Amino acid sequence: MPSLPPPLVVALSGLSSTGKSTIASHLPSIFSAPRYAVSVLHVDDFYRPQSELPLREELLDWDCVESLDWPRLESAVQRWRGGEKVAEGEVNPQPEIDGTAANGVKGGITEALMEELRSAIQSTQREIKACQRILILDGFLLFTLSVPSAFRSLLDLKILLCAPYAEAKRRREARSRYTTMEGWWEDPPGYFDKVVWPNYVEENKGFFIGGDVEWEADGEVCERENVRVCKGKEGGLGEVLKWLVRELSKVLVKSEEEVGD
């Protein structure tokens, strides 16, 4: 009986409105059956109740580590690792093709690109002996040092999507409202500068040279923490998706080789 490849948990994290959810929605179609079984877990479904959120600059802080229910999220990932289907937040949404996401992120993910990526993955597959299960976690803060270490230890691949301040602000402010457990939320004036950007800088500056999140990633730190940084591509999300597929493929090939050995 062939050895089963270990389940793989991929953390797709980064600044708000960098296209994480759009990217995540395309991965199940690229890494498809029968070789792969990909599920997407949206971390936005694991917020604490609005009444329990902390304040920053006298505003509710939805963009900090303390806003999430980490025990519930950790339990969901553990249950998935154990073979259960995770009900909360687990969906395989229909991907958007050749369009612009609601948050203003440039598209560039065409059907032609999707076919190219699917073909590339199929051509590199070894003999199918067992299905590789993959869980994509889509969330804004997933592996900074403020995140509980027990949760971080569950992550096999950490991806950080970035954007410069001006572009990130434009994208965030292009969004109208967010669905919450209590109804919906709309950013008040100044929310990006008072809450979103400061939280992002504080949590992620350690991954960058000199603590400058708009500069180059610190290779030594990122290697030690197993973090791979994507600062955006000129071709929009299409190029980001291609980069991520390459990075994930490297990990999958290594996993398959280890099982084969």
Topology:
Blueprint: E1 8-14, H1 20-30, E2 36-42, E3 55-56, E4 59-60, H2 70-81, E5 90-91, H3 111-124, E6 132-138, H4 149-152, E7 157-161, H5 165-174, E8 178-180, E9 183-185, H6 191-204, H7 219-225, E10 227-230, H8 237-260
Helix pairs in contact: 1-8
Written description of the protein model:
With 261 residues, this protein is of the alpha/beta class. Helices cover 37% and strands 16% of the residues. It contains 8 helices and 10 strands. The strands form 3 sheets. Strands 5-2-6-1-7-10 form a 6-stranded mixed beta sheet, sandwiched between helices. Strands 3-4 form a two-stranded antiparallel sheet. A two-stranded antiparallel sheet has the order 8-9. A hairpin with a 2-residue loop joins strand 3 (55-56) and strand 4. Helix 1 crosses helix 8 (237-260). The two termini are 14 Å apart.
Total number of strands: 10
Radius of gyration, whole Å:
18 Å
Q: Helix proportion of residues, in percent? A: 25-40%
Mean pLDDT: 86
Structural class based on helices, strands and sheet pairing: alpha/beta
Shape: globular
Written as H for each helix and E for each strand, in order along the chain, the element string is EHEEEHEHEHEHEEHHEH
